[in-house]
Amino acid sequence: MFLTFHRSHVLEQGKEIGLSKRQRKLYTNCTGDSGYERRGKWSHVIFEHPSSFETIALNPEKKEIVGDLVTFSKAKEYYAKIGKPWKRGYLLYGPPGTGKSSLVAAIANFLKYDIYVIELTNVETNAELRKLDQALIRRGRMDMHIELSYCGFDGFKMLAMNYLSIESHPLFKTV
């Protein structure tokens, strides 16, 4: 039996294997509080968060982001062809504890990307944060705006399954 492999296929498979085995990192910008020489540099820790789209309690209509991520991840050549940077912006907003950080972790795990966190420690007042908000939400800045709120019944059922391995229960009707 004689097998031939295309060079591009072999390189692509090698890259996929390397990405799947590589440890992802969580980078944070240094704001200068640890010395002048660190200002403007990035420090990192190993990113080991188990969150995935199968485990987060995301409302079903919000899972449209998965399709968007798949489309984006396959479009690097298209972006180069049209002369645009290959980047995607997601604005996640909502009350504390609604899953924004877990969604970021799920995205990073899904795409096998590192995470970069920009510390906003230089923002001293709410007024400054409101000017920053406008810069982030102006037309064309973010590709998708995703509001996360407290989970509904579908999210509750997912949490019950993930944490307690319960698919149904008589008290579900009360919830």
Q: Could you walk me through the main structural features you see in this protein, from its secondary elements to its overall organization?
A:
The structure is a single chain. This protein is α/β, with parallel strands linked by helices and 175 residues long. The chain contains 6 helices and 5 strands. The longest helix is centred in the N-terminal third of the chain and has 15 residues, at 7-21. It is globular and about 60 Å long. The termini are far apart.
Name a few traits of the molecule.
alpha/beta; three-stranded mixed beta sheet; two-stranded parallel ribbon; globular; about 180 residues
Low-pLDDT regions: none
**What is the total number of structural domains?**
1
Main-sheet strand order equals 2-1-4
Distance N to C terminus: 62 Å
Mean pLDDT: 81
Largest sheet entry: 3 strands, mixed
Could you spell the SSE succession in H and E letters? HEEHHEHEHEH
Q: Tally of extended strands?
A: 5
Number of helices: 6
**Helix amount:** 25-40%
Indicate the topology.
Elements: H1 7-21, E1 25-29, E2 42-46, H2 64-73, H3 76-82, E3 90-93, H4 100-111, E4 115-117, H5 126-137, E5 144-147, H6 153-164
Parallel strand pairs: 1-4, 3-5
Antiparallel strand pairs: 1-2
